Amino acid sequence: MGNKSNYKFLLSDLSALKGVGSKTVKILKKKNINNIFDLLWKLPKSYTDRSLSSEIKDLRIGENQTVTVIPQKYYFPRIRNLPNRVSCRDNSGELDCIFFNSYEGYIKKILPLGKEITISGKIGRFKNKYQITNPKYISEDSSLIKQKHNTYSLTEGISEKIYNNIISQIIEKLPILDEWHSKDILKNFDNICWNESIKELHKPENIGNFEKNFYQRLAFDEIFSTFLVNSEIRKKIKKNKKKKKIINFEKQRFLIKKLDFLLTNDQLKSLNEINNDLTSSSKMFRLLQGDVGSGKTIVSLLSAYNTVNSGFQVAIMAPTEILARQHFNLAKKIFPKDICIGFISGKSIYKDKINILNNLTNHKIDLIFGTHAIFQKKVNFKKLGLIIIDEQHKFGVSQRKKLSDKGGNDCDVLLMTATPIPRTLTMTIYGDMDLSIINEKPSLRKPIKTYSKLENKIDEVIKFIKKEISLDNQVFWVCPLIEESKKIDHSSAIKKFEYLKKIFPNQVSLLHGKTTQEEKEQILNNFLDNRFKILVSTTIIEVGIDFPNANVIIIENANKFGLSQLHQLRGRVGRGKKDSTCILMFKSNLSENAKKRINILKKNNDGFIISEEDMKIRGFGDILGFKQSGIKNFKLADPIHNNDLFLLAEKEIKRIEKSKEDISKFKPLIKLYDRADIINDIV
Ligand code: ADP
Ligand code: MG
């Protein structure tokens, strides 16, 4: 057994290293490198450049390598089943890129003749020539590829010499950690230990060897530690014993019967899963996941109803006042009058607020709707039994845990999200929760027809809108969202608003980043009430709100959005019985790659499939802006390419949960890889 506290060296300050003065520390901190462990994942540019510049003549057959070449000539055979080929060269030799199933236009775009291009893939040899089949990463900017290799350029001010000195010191002192993985897991990685893996990772000749055991093991460590933390949080929450709720199924049946639609099988299944949790003696901590329009609201309201009938209070929170109010109105419509329903917002007037606070404390109110105002300190419940949170993808793990703690002992928690993401990501982001999924859409719903149009054909779009408006339908018009420049967004939306106003007098309203919250709610309410026909907006129209009468959405400069975002936007329409249409507008002709992506959208109505396909094309970091939403960034692991590692981690976690294994041996792993704020609670 090694020294158990060995790992602490890795968490120590950078100044512990020789030759690292305060100036260097400062530069590294700016790059978010705060301790020795952080440094392990940063390989400087120049350090990798040497291995990148491996010339064609030095390529090793059978290995994944990266090389910079200049494309010379295209061969697009007209005979079916023959692959497309691009012959490339550098100063030392020739290399062919072979493509199966790729469009000519796409190939021409990614491998323009005469330009230096950096590519990566498994090196093969055919007829005395090197070749890469379906190269993995292709980029004109070789630094992009290096990012894939997880290499970063260090900030100016640190010379390669200093950096190499730092790294070799670390490698020299690298502690030998007690192995945390089981023998069975290690077998998957040829039994390579953590220490050895890090050393391999830092060997220049190993850059880009994603498939090698050291790389896979290190990626697995990351995934596994995330899953383990999730699992421990869930266990901890479940440990809390609570008063079981007793469900009045008679009342539930009666309410379901009164609805003007039949619940889908998935809605019923989810409701059942929630009911099981409510009646169990451990706390519920569940995520209800379903695509836009899949009907999550009614499932959550039925759970609220059951909880109230069991003698408890329920709090339902939505991100915006208008969405909270829409849920509130629906509850008032479908629940019997003897249930007391309240609404609270930041804007409620003082007297009303006091009144509501009192009625929550004395349990006169059974069910309260509101924004985050619900969870202010001064809000106290007499007997809170269930918290429901709608559309809060921005809640991170630790926020969710706090939420569950806040509700008190008898309080169950249900979160809802429409963010359709592939399973590997769901496991990563929401692995601390149990999961109910609604896949099936309500049956009568018609698919939204999706078209693309060039911007200069706007007259055709106007003609189409005129027709729809004459049928009393409503239209969303979304203007380009250009993150770098709020100003441009703003003015382009205003321009479009002015333009449309002339064609449709008194029928157009505008929402943009500068609209105050109050005005915004006013405008959205008016739109809901069909008091005007076209809503021009820059920001993404509030998630979750149901606009049953809107059936057309125009999205300008659609290539500024990711596919999942486009799908979410499109989901604002198509709720009613009418045909609905989504028109994606583009400034110029689409590249083959963009066409491919848009076709995914046109052909699919399922957000899960769309996001999965999008991830395959664009990589996972980009979709849905998860980088901003607090998801921990993996250093090496990638939910698409390492799908097998995610599944392996899931299996291992299940085994550990079942065998009730002591997890203290994972302490170094969690301490090194995970979020300091919640781990103290766990190990
Ligand atoms: P989301 O899952 O996006 O929150 P909502 O709960 O807002 O979706 O539901 C969208 C619309 O579908 C609402 O108008 C709702 O009344 C309706 N709806 C829900 N369930 C069904 C169903 N089983 N059959 C028909 N319509 C339904
Ligand atoms: Mg919703």
Write out key terms for the chains shown.
single chain, 683 residues, alpha/beta, OB fold (Dihydrolipoamide Acetyltransferase, E2P), Rossmann fold, seven-stranded parallel sheet, 25 helices, 40% helix, globular, binds adenosine-5'-diphosphate, binds magnesium ion
Structural class: alpha/beta
| CATH H-level homologous superfamily name of the domain at 249-438 | P-loop containing nucleotide triphosphate hydrolases
Radius of gyration, taken over Cα atoms and rounded to an integer in Å: 28 Å
- Oligomeric form: single chain
Low-confidence stretches: 44-51, 143-153, 623-630
The main sheet comes to: 7 strands, parallel
Fold and architecture overview:
The protein has 683 residues and is α/β, with parallel strands linked by helices. Among the domains are: 51-146, Nucleic acid-binding proteins (OB fold (Dihydrolipoamide Acetyltransferase, E2P)); 249-438, Rossmann fold; 449-604, Rossmann fold (3-Layer(aba) Sandwich), CATH 3.40.50. It is 40% helix and 16% strand. It contains 25 helices and 19 strands. The strands form 3 sheets. The protein has a 7-stranded parallel sheet with strand order 9-10-8-11-12-7-13, sandwiched between helices. It has a 6-stranded parallel sheet with strand order 14-19-18-15-17-16, with helices on both faces. A hairpin with a 4-residue loop joins strand 2 (84-89) and strand 3. Helix 8 packs across helix 9, helix 9 (213-239) packs across helix 23 (643-659) and helix 10 (249-258) packs antiparallel against helix 12 (296-309). The protein starts with 21 loop residues before the first helix and ends with a helix. Magnesium ion (MG) binds at residues 296-297, 390, 544.
